[in-house]
Design goal:
The protein is an alpha/beta fold and 387 residues long. The chain has helices at 36-45, 52-62, 79-86, 146-150, 158-173, 206-217, 239-246, 263-269, 278-292, 310-323, 348-360, and strands at 92-99, 104-110, 116-124, 127-131, 135-137, 152-155, 193-196, 231-235, 253-257, 296-302, 328-334. Helices cover 31% and strands 17% of the residues. The chain starts with 35 loop residues before the first helix and ends in a 27-residue tail after the last helix. The protein binds S-adenosyl-L-homocysteine.
Length: 387
Protein backbone atom coordinates (compact mmCIF):
# COMPACT_ATOMS: atom_id res chain seq x y z
CA UNK A 1 0.00 0.00 0.00
CA UNK A 2 1.18 3.51 -0.68
CA UNK A 3 2.39 5.56 2.24
CA UNK A 4 -0.25 8.01 3.27
CA UNK A 5 0.45 11.08 5.36
CA UNK A 6 -0.43 10.76 9.00
CA UNK A 7 -2.64 13.66 10.05
CA UNK A 8 -1.46 15.48 13.10
CA UNK A 9 -3.98 16.87 15.51
CA UNK A 10 -3.27 19.18 18.38
CA UNK A 11 -4.80 17.70 21.52
CA UNK A 12 -7.32 20.05 23.08
CA UNK A 13 -6.82 21.48 26.55
CA UNK A 14 -9.62 20.66 29.04
CA UNK A 15 -12.84 22.49 28.25
CA UNK A 16 -11.64 23.75 24.89
CA UNK A 17 -14.29 23.55 22.14
CA UNK A 18 -13.41 23.31 18.46
CA UNK A 19 -16.01 23.98 15.81
CA UNK A 20 -13.93 24.65 12.72
CA UNK A 21 -11.98 21.70 11.37
CA UNK A 22 -8.41 22.41 10.34
CA UNK A 23 -8.12 23.08 6.61
CA UNK A 24 -7.17 20.00 4.66
CA UNK A 25 -7.48 18.76 1.11
CA UNK A 26 -10.89 17.48 0.09
CA UNK A 27 -11.61 13.83 -0.61
CA UNK A 28 -12.56 13.02 -4.20
CA UNK A 29 -16.21 13.51 -5.05
CA UNK A 30 -18.41 10.44 -5.05
CA UNK A 31 -21.85 9.59 -6.37
CA UNK A 32 -23.19 9.49 -2.81
CA UNK A 33 -22.29 13.15 -2.35
CA UNK A 34 -24.99 14.11 -4.85
CA UNK A 35 -28.73 13.88 -5.09
CA UNK A 36 -30.18 12.40 -8.27
CA UNK A 37 -30.03 15.63 -10.27
CA UNK A 38 -26.44 16.22 -9.16
CA UNK A 39 -25.41 12.71 -10.17
CA UNK A 40 -26.89 13.13 -13.63
CA UNK A 41 -25.05 16.41 -14.08
CA UNK A 42 -21.79 14.89 -12.84
CA UNK A 43 -22.06 11.93 -15.23
CA UNK A 44 -22.88 14.25 -18.13
CA UNK A 45 -19.93 16.46 -17.27
CA UNK A 46 -17.77 13.36 -17.72
CA UNK A 47 -19.15 13.01 -21.24
CA UNK A 48 -21.59 10.17 -20.55
CA UNK A 49 -25.34 9.89 -21.01
CA UNK A 50 -27.31 11.08 -17.98
CA UNK A 51 -29.09 7.75 -17.47
CA UNK A 52 -25.79 6.15 -16.55
CA UNK A 53 -26.16 7.90 -13.18
CA UNK A 54 -29.14 5.75 -12.35
CA UNK A 55 -27.33 2.58 -13.37
CA UNK A 56 -24.40 3.50 -11.15
CA UNK A 57 -26.77 4.34 -8.30
CA UNK A 58 -28.38 0.92 -8.64
CA UNK A 59 -25.02 -0.78 -8.43
CA UNK A 60 -23.99 1.20 -5.40
CA UNK A 61 -27.16 1.56 -3.35
CA UNK A 62 -28.98 -1.65 -4.31
CA UNK A 63 -26.20 -4.13 -4.99
CA UNK A 64 -23.43 -2.47 -2.94
CA UNK A 65 -21.13 -3.03 -5.89
CA UNK A 66 -18.35 -0.66 -6.88
CA UNK A 67 -16.26 -3.02 -9.01
CA UNK A 68 -16.54 -2.11 -12.70
CA UNK A 69 -16.10 -5.79 -13.69
CA UNK A 70 -19.55 -6.49 -12.26
CA UNK A 71 -21.25 -3.63 -14.11
CA UNK A 72 -21.90 -5.38 -17.38
CA UNK A 73 -24.80 -3.07 -18.20
CA UNK A 74 -22.30 -0.25 -18.75
CA UNK A 75 -20.36 -0.13 -22.03
CA UNK A 76 -16.91 -1.61 -21.62
CA UNK A 77 -15.28 1.38 -23.29
CA UNK A 78 -14.75 4.05 -20.65
CA UNK A 79 -16.42 2.02 -17.92
CA UNK A 80 -13.44 1.83 -15.60
CA UNK A 81 -12.85 5.58 -15.89
CA UNK A 82 -16.51 6.39 -15.23
CA UNK A 83 -16.59 4.15 -12.17
CA UNK A 84 -13.33 5.57 -10.89
CA UNK A 85 -14.69 9.09 -11.25
CA UNK A 86 -18.13 8.42 -9.71
CA UNK A 87 -17.39 5.64 -7.21
CA UNK A 88 -13.83 6.22 -6.00
CA UNK A 89 -12.80 4.14 -3.03
CA UNK A 90 -13.02 6.53 -0.09
CA UNK A 91 -12.78 4.06 2.78
CA UNK A 92 -9.86 1.66 2.84
CA UNK A 93 -10.24 -1.13 5.40
CA UNK A 94 -7.39 -1.12 7.90
CA UNK A 95 -8.66 -3.57 10.48
CA UNK A 96 -11.78 -5.51 11.30
CA UNK A 97 -12.40 -6.78 14.84
CA UNK A 98 -15.10 -9.20 15.96
CA UNK A 99 -16.85 -9.56 19.29
CA UNK A 100 -19.96 -11.33 20.57
CA UNK A 101 -19.20 -14.45 18.50
CA UNK A 102 -18.95 -12.42 15.33
CA UNK A 103 -22.26 -10.62 15.75
CA UNK A 104 -20.47 -7.35 16.48
CA UNK A 105 -17.90 -6.11 13.99
CA UNK A 106 -15.79 -3.00 14.42
CA UNK A 107 -14.15 -1.67 11.30
CA UNK A 108 -11.31 0.81 11.14
CA UNK A 109 -11.14 2.80 7.91
CA UNK A 110 -8.35 4.89 6.45
CA UNK A 111 -9.50 7.91 4.50
CA UNK A 112 -7.77 9.39 1.46
CA UNK A 113 -5.61 11.68 3.61
CA UNK A 114 -4.61 9.08 6.16
CA UNK A 115 -7.22 10.05 8.76
CA UNK A 116 -8.75 7.03 10.53
CA UNK A 117 -12.38 6.51 11.50
CA UNK A 118 -14.32 3.59 12.93
CA UNK A 119 -17.77 2.10 12.51
CA UNK A 120 -19.46 -0.71 14.42
CA UNK A 121 -22.03 -3.17 13.10
CA UNK A 122 -24.21 -4.96 15.64
CA UNK A 123 -26.49 -7.80 14.64
CA UNK A 124 -29.42 -8.52 16.92
CA UNK A 125 -32.38 -10.82 16.44
CA UNK A 126 -34.53 -9.05 13.86
CA UNK A 127 -32.40 -5.96 13.36
CA UNK A 128 -28.93 -4.78 12.45
CA UNK A 129 -27.68 -1.50 13.90
CA UNK A 130 -24.70 0.41 12.61
CA UNK A 131 -22.91 3.02 14.68
CA UNK A 132 -21.17 5.40 12.29
CA UNK A 133 -18.73 8.29 12.45
CA UNK A 134 -19.43 11.77 11.13
CA UNK A 135 -16.04 13.38 11.81
CA UNK A 136 -12.47 12.19 12.15
CA UNK A 137 -11.95 13.01 15.81
CA UNK A 138 -14.28 15.42 17.59
CA UNK A 139 -14.09 19.00 18.81
CA UNK A 140 -16.47 18.67 21.74
CA UNK A 141 -13.81 17.50 24.19
CA UNK A 142 -15.96 15.51 26.64
CA UNK A 143 -13.32 14.28 29.13
CA UNK A 144 -14.74 10.74 29.51
CA UNK A 145 -14.91 10.06 25.77
CA UNK A 146 -11.97 8.56 23.90
CA UNK A 147 -12.71 10.43 20.67
CA UNK A 148 -13.03 13.71 22.56
CA UNK A 149 -9.43 13.36 23.72
CA UNK A 150 -8.19 13.24 20.14
CA UNK A 151 -9.39 16.63 19.05
CA UNK A 152 -10.97 17.33 15.68
CA UNK A 153 -9.09 16.20 12.60
CA UNK A 154 -11.74 16.96 10.00
CA UNK A 155 -15.34 16.68 8.91
CA UNK A 156 -16.31 13.65 6.84
CA UNK A 157 -18.00 14.17 3.50
CA UNK A 158 -21.49 12.85 2.84
CA UNK A 159 -20.10 9.92 0.86
CA UNK A 160 -17.59 9.04 3.59
CA UNK A 161 -20.45 8.88 6.10
CA UNK A 162 -22.80 6.92 3.84
CA UNK A 163 -19.98 4.62 2.69
CA UNK A 164 -19.71 3.15 6.18
CA UNK A 165 -23.32 1.96 5.99
CA UNK A 166 -22.93 0.65 2.44
CA UNK A 167 -19.84 -1.29 3.57
CA UNK A 168 -21.85 -2.80 6.41
CA UNK A 169 -24.68 -3.70 4.06
CA UNK A 170 -22.16 -5.37 1.75
CA UNK A 171 -20.74 -7.44 4.63
CA UNK A 172 -24.20 -8.62 5.57
CA UNK A 173 -24.98 -9.47 1.97
CA UNK A 174 -21.78 -11.49 1.74
CA UNK A 175 -22.71 -13.45 4.86
CA UNK A 176 -19.70 -12.07 6.72
CA UNK A 177 -21.62 -11.32 9.94
CA UNK A 178 -22.56 -14.09 12.34
CA UNK A 179 -25.93 -14.33 14.00
CA UNK A 180 -29.27 -14.93 12.45
CA UNK A 181 -31.95 -16.72 14.34
CA UNK A 182 -35.41 -17.32 12.93
CA UNK A 183 -36.49 -13.71 13.17
CA UNK A 184 -33.49 -12.17 11.53
CA UNK A 185 -33.30 -14.61 8.65
CA UNK A 186 -35.31 -12.23 6.53
CA UNK A 187 -34.11 -11.70 2.99
CA UNK A 188 -32.42 -9.61 2.02
CA UNK A 189 -30.63 -9.03 5.27
CA UNK A 190 -30.05 -5.31 5.57
CA UNK A 191 -28.83 -2.62 7.88
CA UNK A 192 -32.08 -1.61 9.59
CA UNK A 193 -30.85 1.02 12.06
CA UNK A 194 -28.16 3.67 11.98
CA UNK A 195 -26.99 5.68 14.98
CA UNK A 196 -24.72 8.71 14.66
CA UNK A 197 -22.91 7.61 17.79
CA UNK A 198 -19.49 6.87 16.41
CA UNK A 199 -16.72 9.42 16.21
CA UNK A 200 -17.65 13.06 15.95
CA UNK A 201 -20.44 15.52 16.65
CA UNK A 202 -22.59 15.15 13.54
CA UNK A 203 -24.54 18.37 14.16
CA UNK A 204 -21.23 20.26 14.01
CA UNK A 205 -20.88 18.82 10.48
CA UNK A 206 -24.47 19.73 9.77
CA UNK A 207 -24.79 19.89 5.98
CA UNK A 208 -22.92 16.65 5.34
CA UNK A 209 -24.82 14.84 8.11
CA UNK A 210 -28.18 15.95 6.69
CA UNK A 211 -27.16 14.96 3.19
CA UNK A 212 -26.09 11.58 4.54
CA UNK A 213 -29.51 11.16 6.19
CA UNK A 214 -31.11 11.91 2.81
CA UNK A 215 -29.00 9.23 1.13
CA UNK A 216 -29.94 6.72 3.84
CA UNK A 217 -33.69 7.34 3.57
CA UNK A 218 -34.06 8.07 -0.15
CA UNK A 219 -35.77 5.10 -1.84
CA UNK A 220 -33.46 2.89 -3.92
CA UNK A 221 -31.75 3.46 -6.23
CA UNK A 222 -31.40 7.10 -5.13
CA UNK A 223 -30.41 5.91 -1.66
CA UNK A 224 -30.63 2.99 0.75
CA UNK A 225 -34.37 3.34 1.41
CA UNK A 226 -34.12 3.14 5.19
CA UNK A 227 -36.84 4.39 7.51
CA UNK A 228 -36.08 7.78 9.09
CA UNK A 229 -37.49 6.42 12.34
CA UNK A 230 -34.66 3.93 12.44
CA UNK A 231 -32.01 6.63 12.32
CA UNK A 232 -30.76 8.29 15.50
CA UNK A 233 -28.94 11.59 15.63
CA UNK A 234 -26.94 11.91 18.83
CA UNK A 235 -25.72 15.31 19.99
CA UNK A 236 -24.00 17.06 22.87
CA UNK A 237 -26.80 19.64 22.61
CA UNK A 238 -26.02 22.18 19.89
CA UNK A 239 -29.31 23.99 20.42
CA UNK A 240 -29.62 25.95 17.13
CA UNK A 241 -28.73 22.80 15.16
CA UNK A 242 -31.37 20.77 17.02
CA UNK A 243 -33.99 23.33 16.01
CA UNK A 244 -32.74 23.25 12.44
CA UNK A 245 -32.90 19.47 12.39
CA UNK A 246 -36.49 19.56 13.62
CA UNK A 247 -37.38 21.79 10.67
CA UNK A 248 -35.84 19.45 8.07
CA UNK A 249 -38.99 17.35 7.94
CA UNK A 250 -37.15 14.03 8.33
CA UNK A 251 -38.37 12.42 11.54
CA UNK A 252 -35.13 10.87 12.77
CA UNK A 253 -34.84 10.06 16.45
CA UNK A 254 -32.93 12.61 18.54
CA UNK A 255 -30.61 11.51 21.33
CA UNK A 256 -29.28 14.15 23.70
CA UNK A 257 -26.06 13.35 25.57
CA UNK A 258 -26.91 14.91 28.90
CA UNK A 259 -24.81 13.03 31.48
CA UNK A 260 -25.69 15.48 34.26
CA UNK A 261 -28.88 17.33 35.22
CA UNK A 262 -27.07 20.30 36.80
CA UNK A 263 -24.94 22.91 35.04
CA UNK A 264 -22.08 22.74 37.47
CA UNK A 265 -21.26 19.12 36.70
CA UNK A 266 -22.33 19.22 33.06
CA UNK A 267 -19.97 22.12 32.39
CA UNK A 268 -17.20 19.69 33.24
CA UNK A 269 -18.52 16.51 31.59
CA UNK A 270 -19.92 18.08 28.42
CA UNK A 271 -18.06 21.37 27.89
CA UNK A 272 -20.61 22.64 25.32
CA UNK A 273 -22.80 23.19 28.38
CA UNK A 274 -20.93 26.46 28.91
CA UNK A 275 -22.68 27.67 25.71
CA UNK A 276 -26.08 26.01 26.08
CA UNK A 277 -27.18 24.99 29.56
CA UNK A 278 -28.99 21.87 30.71
CA UNK A 279 -32.33 23.68 30.61
CA UNK A 280 -31.68 25.15 27.18
CA UNK A 281 -30.70 21.73 25.82
CA UNK A 282 -33.74 20.06 27.37
CA UNK A 283 -36.04 22.77 26.01
CA UNK A 284 -34.60 22.20 22.53
CA UNK A 285 -35.10 18.44 22.92
CA UNK A 286 -38.69 19.04 23.94
CA UNK A 287 -39.27 21.32 20.93
CA UNK A 288 -37.82 18.55 18.76
CA UNK A 289 -40.41 16.17 20.18
CA UNK A 290 -43.21 18.68 19.64
CA UNK A 291 -42.25 19.33 16.02
CA UNK A 292 -41.52 15.76 14.95
CA UNK A 293 -43.63 13.66 17.29
CA UNK A 294 -40.57 11.51 17.88
CA UNK A 295 -39.80 10.53 21.44
CA UNK A 296 -36.38 11.84 22.45
CA UNK A 297 -33.65 9.77 24.13
CA UNK A 298 -31.52 11.16 26.91
CA UNK A 299 -28.10 9.54 27.12
CA UNK A 300 -26.50 9.36 30.54
CA UNK A 301 -23.15 7.64 30.99
CA UNK A 302 -23.12 6.49 34.60
CA UNK A 303 -19.79 7.38 36.18
CA UNK A 304 -19.00 6.14 39.68
CA UNK A 305 -19.34 8.85 42.34
CA UNK A 306 -19.43 11.48 39.63
CA UNK A 307 -22.97 11.73 38.29
CA UNK A 308 -24.69 8.64 39.72
CA UNK A 309 -26.12 10.15 42.94
CA UNK A 310 -29.72 9.58 43.91
CA UNK A 311 -30.35 13.33 44.07
CA UNK A 312 -29.15 13.69 40.48
CA UNK A 313 -31.57 10.97 39.36
CA UNK A 314 -34.32 12.88 41.14
CA UNK A 315 -33.31 16.21 39.63
CA UNK A 316 -33.19 14.66 36.15
CA UNK A 317 -36.58 12.99 36.69
CA UNK A 318 -38.09 16.30 37.84
CA UNK A 319 -36.67 18.29 34.96
CA UNK A 320 -37.94 15.82 32.38
CA UNK A 321 -41.34 15.36 33.99
CA UNK A 322 -41.82 19.12 34.36
CA UNK A 323 -41.76 19.41 30.57
CA UNK A 324 -44.42 16.80 29.94
CA UNK A 325 -45.29 13.14 29.82
CA UNK A 326 -44.41 10.51 27.22
CA UNK A 327 -41.98 12.72 25.34
CA UNK A 328 -38.72 11.26 26.51
CA UNK A 329 -36.94 8.20 27.74
CA UNK A 330 -33.59 7.84 29.45
CA UNK A 331 -30.79 5.54 28.36
CA UNK A 332 -28.21 5.17 31.11
CA UNK A 333 -24.95 3.79 29.68
CA UNK A 334 -22.44 2.12 31.98
CA UNK A 335 -19.27 4.15 31.46
CA UNK A 336 -16.75 2.42 29.23
CA UNK A 337 -13.52 3.55 30.84
CA UNK A 338 -11.08 4.98 28.32
CA UNK A 339 -7.32 4.47 28.64
CA UNK A 340 -5.84 6.62 31.38
CA UNK A 341 -9.24 7.69 32.65
CA UNK A 342 -9.66 8.24 36.37
CA UNK A 343 -13.32 7.32 36.08
CA UNK A 344 -15.06 3.97 36.17
CA UNK A 345 -18.60 2.71 35.74
CA UNK A 346 -21.07 2.95 38.61
CA UNK A 347 -21.64 -0.07 40.80
CA UNK A 348 -24.53 -2.25 39.63
CA UNK A 349 -26.61 -1.50 42.71
CA UNK A 350 -26.15 2.23 42.24
CA UNK A 351 -27.02 1.88 38.56
CA UNK A 352 -30.21 0.02 39.48
CA UNK A 353 -31.17 2.64 42.03
CA UNK A 354 -30.62 5.41 39.48
CA UNK A 355 -32.95 3.61 37.05
CA UNK A 356 -35.60 3.04 39.69
CA UNK A 357 -35.59 6.67 40.81
CA UNK A 358 -36.14 7.85 37.26
CA UNK A 359 -38.95 5.36 36.78
CA UNK A 360 -40.53 6.58 40.01
CA UNK A 361 -40.77 10.00 38.34
CA UNK A 362 -42.64 8.36 35.45
CA UNK A 363 -39.68 8.40 33.08
CA UNK A 364 -39.20 5.23 30.98
CA UNK A 365 -35.60 4.17 31.51
CA UNK A 366 -33.56 1.36 29.97
CA UNK A 367 -29.88 0.60 30.42
CA UNK A 368 -28.01 0.65 27.11
CA UNK A 369 -26.23 -2.59 26.31
CA UNK A 370 -22.53 -2.27 25.70
CA UNK A 371 -21.79 -4.48 22.77
CA UNK A 372 -18.23 -4.65 21.63
CA UNK A 373 -16.56 -3.23 24.73
CA UNK A 374 -13.84 -5.89 24.52
CA UNK A 375 -12.80 -4.62 21.10
CA UNK A 376 -12.95 -0.97 22.15
CA UNK A 377 -16.04 -0.75 20.02
CA UNK A 378 -18.56 0.35 22.61
CA UNK A 379 -19.96 3.82 23.25
CA UNK A 380 -17.27 6.42 23.54
CA UNK A 381 -14.40 4.03 22.97
CA UNK A 382 -13.93 4.74 19.31
CA UNK A 383 -10.56 6.35 18.95
CA UNK A 384 -8.69 5.18 15.92
CA UNK A 385 -5.03 5.83 16.42
CA UNK A 386 -2.21 5.20 14.02
CA UNK A 387 -0.17 3.67 16.85
N1 LIG B 1 -21.14 13.57 19.58
C1 LIG B 1 -22.30 12.73 19.77
C2 LIG B 1 -22.01 11.26 19.53
C3 LIG B 1 -21.03 10.75 20.53
S1 LIG B 1 -20.95 9.04 20.95
C4 LIG B 1 -22.80 12.92 21.17
O1 LIG B 1 -22.07 13.40 22.02
O2 LIG B 1 -23.94 12.58 21.44
C5 LIG B 1 -22.49 8.54 21.53
C6 LIG B 1 -22.69 8.52 23.04
O3 LIG B 1 -21.67 7.83 23.75
C7 LIG B 1 -22.76 9.92 23.62
O4 LIG B 1 -23.85 9.99 24.48
C8 LIG B 1 -21.47 9.98 24.40
O5 LIG B 1 -21.53 10.94 25.43
C9 LIG B 1 -21.36 8.58 24.92
N2 LIG B 1 -20.03 8.25 25.42
C10 LIG B 1 -18.87 8.86 25.11
N3 LIG B 1 -17.86 8.30 25.78
C11 LIG B 1 -18.39 7.32 26.54
C12 LIG B 1 -17.82 6.38 27.44
N4 LIG B 1 -16.53 6.35 27.68
N5 LIG B 1 -18.67 5.52 28.03
C13 LIG B 1 -19.97 5.53 27.78
N6 LIG B 1 -20.56 6.38 26.92
C14 LIG B 1 -19.78 7.28 26.32
Amino acid sequence: MTDLPTPSTKKPVPGQLTFAAPRRGKPPQHLADFDEAGRKAAVEALGHKGFRAKQLSTHYFEHFVDDPAQMTDLPAAGRAELVEAMLPQLLTPVRSLNADDGRTVKQVWRLFDGALVESVLMRYPGRVTMCISSQAGCGMNCPFCATGQEGLTRNLTTAEIVGQVVAGARMLREGAVAGGDDESRETPLRVSNVVFMGMGEALANYRQAINAIHRLVDPAPAGLGMSARHLTMSTVGLVPAIDKLAAEGIPVTLALSLHAPDDELRNELVPINTRWTVDEALDAAYRYYETTGRRVSIEYALIKDMNDHAWRADLLGQKLRARGKGWVHVNPIPLNPTPGSKWTASRKGVEQQFVERLRAHGIPTTIRDTRGSDIDGACGQLAASTA
